[in-house]
Design goal:
With about 450 residues, this protein is of the alpha+beta class. Among the domains are: about 70 residues; about 60 residues, no CATH class; about 150 residues, no CATH class. It is built from 14 helices and 10 strands. The protein is elongated, with a radius of gyration of 51 Å.
């Protein structure tokens, strides 16, 4: 049976298994040796890693200390501020800063020359500043120490640092300001509330009387629609910020008898005039000049700046309204012209009333009554005649004729080539005639009558 094929196959299989078992045992021994070597190497690497970690921690501590020291040094010099900003942007920023600082270190000699030049320039600037401020500093002369690079101020007493001098001057300035405020209050109360009040009040009353005269005249000159224009002299709005608004807000107090004013009222008025004087001087300094207190006070006392003119429209059956920009823009061309012309003419007439009796009441118009209908033109001419005006008008179509005019002269310009002449026409209240010079003009130009220019 052992010699049978099956037996031989089994014996051969057994020998193969014994050989495979021997090989596996040998490999097991080899693997066990390799595992031991790896475990030994792992122990060595673990120990090395622990040493490296300890070294890394020591390096991080040292780096943090070095970075903190460098940041402190960079922050101590304003010129190195850009480096400090870059230093905080990360590792790349720190590397850039290190490279830049190395370049600066390599340039120490040139940097030293720059520092010396800067010191000389600073010394010159200090001398110039001291010269310019010598009058302001008075007895406080600066003393510069080149070795220390410091400045102290020397007066009758011990020398002082700039901060100490500033503190002392601020105390003195505060005392002077308090004294000046008391003096200004006394000035405002005595000069303005007693000496100037009646003069200012009288001028305002005169202006209001003049305005009443103007409005009385305007009342007699209604437009074709029955609308009557009048002027209003209104105080400025308290918070408008316009020149004079701070005083205009207290006109009621200014009109009150000084003996009836309470202390708070006096302080309010004095404060309003003080604020206006300060505004005048502040704006003047901004323009490059410097007004004296008296000059600024003169401007602040100009009562005309405390008011503004408004045109009031009174139409039949309607409430009076202010002709502001919006309402003015809705008017026709003729209404706009009359709304501007009539108040101005009435104002001029009221001013002429204050002149001598024989003073010429002359007024001039360019493009007179452009776009105004004939009815309103006739009313405007009657208005001018009523106040005894003499006028000169330029117009492309207006003739000095009509029942509204007692007399008028119209000169029609004609031109032929480079020759220009005027044809005079005279209106005597009933008829118009051409002056005798027409024949000589026609002869000079060689032409008959032409179109009006």
């Amino acid at each position: 049976m052992l010699d049978s094929p099956e037996g031989r196959e089994k014996r051969e299989r057994y020998r193969q298994l014994q050989s495979e078992d021997g090989r596996l045992q040998a490999e097991q021994v080899e693997v066990a040796g390799r595992v031991g070597g790896l475990q030994q190497r792992e122990g060595t690497l673990t120990a090395a890693l622990a040493g490296q970690k300890e070294s890394l921690e020591r390096g991080e501590v040292a780096e943090a200390a070095a970075r903190a020291s460098l940041e402190t040094q960079l922050g101590a010099y304003p010129s190195l501020a850009p480096y400090l900003q870059a230093f905080g942007s990360g590792a790349s920023g720190a590397a850039d800063v290190a490279a830049a600082l190395l370049l600066r270190r390599a340039d120490d000699e040139q940097q030293g020359r720059r520092i010396e030049a800067d010191e000389r320039a600073a010394a010159r600037a200090l001398d110039q500043t001291e010269f310019g401020c010598r009058e302001v500093l008075g007895d406080y002369g600066p003393e510069y120490s080149p070795d220390l690079g410091l400045v102290r101020f020397v007066a009758a007493g011990p020398s002082q640092w700039p901060a100490q001098l500033r503190q002392e001057l601020e105390v003195r300035l505060l005392a002077q300001e308090q004294l000046l405020a008391a003096s200004e209050r006394e000035l405002y109360e005595d000069f303005i509330l007693h000496q100037m009040r009646e003069s200012i009040h009288g001028r305002i009353r005169d202006a209001e009387a003049w305005l009443d005269s103007v409005n009385s005249d305007l009342q007699e000159a209604p437009l074709g629609s029955g609308e009557v224009l009048q002027l209003r002299w209104a105080p400025l709005a308290p918070h408008s910020g316009a020149p004079g608004a701070s005083i205009a807000a207290h006109l009621g107090l200014l009109r009150t008898d000084p003996g009836l004013l309470q202390p708070d009222d006096r302080d309010t008025l004095a404060g309003a005039f003080r604020a206006e004087v300060e505004r005048v001087r502040r704006e003047d300094r901004r323009d490059g000049s410097d007004l004296s207190f008296v000059e600024a006070l003169e401007q602040a006392l100009d009562y005309r700046a405390w008011f503004r003119f408004e045109i009031i429209s009174r139409s039949p059956g309607q409430r009076p309204v202010v002709v502001d920009d919006r309402r003015f823009s809705t008017r026709s061309g003729a209404e706009k012209s009359l709304a501007l012309m009539l108040p101005l003419v009435a104002a001029a007439a009221a001013r002429y009333d204050a002149a001598r009796v024989d003073a010429p009441r002359l007024i001039a118009f360019d493009e007179a009554f452009a776009g105004v209908d004939p009815q309103n033109v006739a009313e405007a001419l009657r208005f001018l005649c009523r106040f005894g005006f003499c006028w000169i008008m330029a117009s492309e179509r207006l003739w000095g004729v009509g029942p509204a005019l007692p007399a008028a002269a119209t000169y029609e310009l004609i031109r032929t080539g480079n020759v220009a002449a005027a044809l005079p026409f005279f209106w005597d209240g009933t008829a118009q005639r051409l002056h005798d010079v027409a024949e000589s003009v026609a002869a000079a130009t060689g032409e008959a009558r032409g179109d009006r220019a």
